[in-house]
Amino acid sequence: MNKGFSLLEMLVAVAVFALLLVLLSGAYSGVDRAVSQANARRDANQTGRTALEWITRDLERIRPPAPGSVWSVTQNTNTNRPAATAGVQFLIASNQITANKNPHAAFWQVASEESAGRTMAVVGYFVRWVTETSGTRPVLCRLYLNQTNAGYTNLYAGTDTSGTAWLNDALLTNAPADAAGSYKGWFADNVHSIWFRALDANGAPITANASSNAFPGGSYNSSEGYLSGTNRVMGPALPASVEVAVIVVNPNRLQGNTATFPVPAGLGSNPANFWSDIQSAMADTNIPPRLRESLRLYSTRVPIRYAQ
Hints:
The structure is a single chain. By secondary structure, the chain is of the alpha+beta class. It contains four helices and eleven strands, in the order αββββαββββββααβ. The chain has one domain (34-303). The protein has helices at 7-60, 169-173, 274-282, 289-292; strands spanning 90-92, 106-111, 120-132, 135-146, 182-189, 191-199, 220-221, 226-228, 231-233, 241-248, 296-303. The N and C termini lie far apart (101 Å).
């Protein structure tokens, strides 16, 4: 005669089944977290690499506005050099802007992508924090603007046709798109900060202009030339190469974030301390620990074709 299960056996079976469900659920949750973390690391890696690829491409497109704007330089002699506003224009952390440096926004001239001949445009990269319903997050922005727009022809303050600064805070805080042939807005998500450093032909950081005056706040202004050891490279002059670094944050850690964590004031003031400043920025205790531990650094060095 067939015999059924006893109540005790049924209870034991249910308990074992429930335990298996708990174990399987925990294992699934662990696998799901691992997959999510791996995807976040992959996305951060893709963001860092893509950002550097585009910045490198744009730096390689730097060129003078006309033939003859680049010349051979010897110490203290440069009889054929063009006026500062006629040569190649390149700015790092310009004091013409006070916002969105974070900390080393950079802007330079390239050949226009939309016009034939030697029509110029300006390209620039900077970080902006944006507020959304889910919280705040940093985005890397790319500025692209034909210099023929609104009569603008130069990056330097006070040299455009309106007599005011061409590159200014308003230009970086307006709507992402304005006149035809220009665009400024999101380029890559979750980029905590961007850093630029100008280097001379010996790979040494450029810290002073051709008049031996220190560039303030880790900046660089091609109109002022620069010192390379004891040699004066008269402006306008491009550096031999540019070092670029971006710090990317894990997007999963930004969920619900309600504050911004820019690089503290004063960091990046001396290009010689470029890497130690970056490490200090990544270790900043003002950044919540769960965000701080997710920061990743990506960097490259780009030779400049028309360097002096």
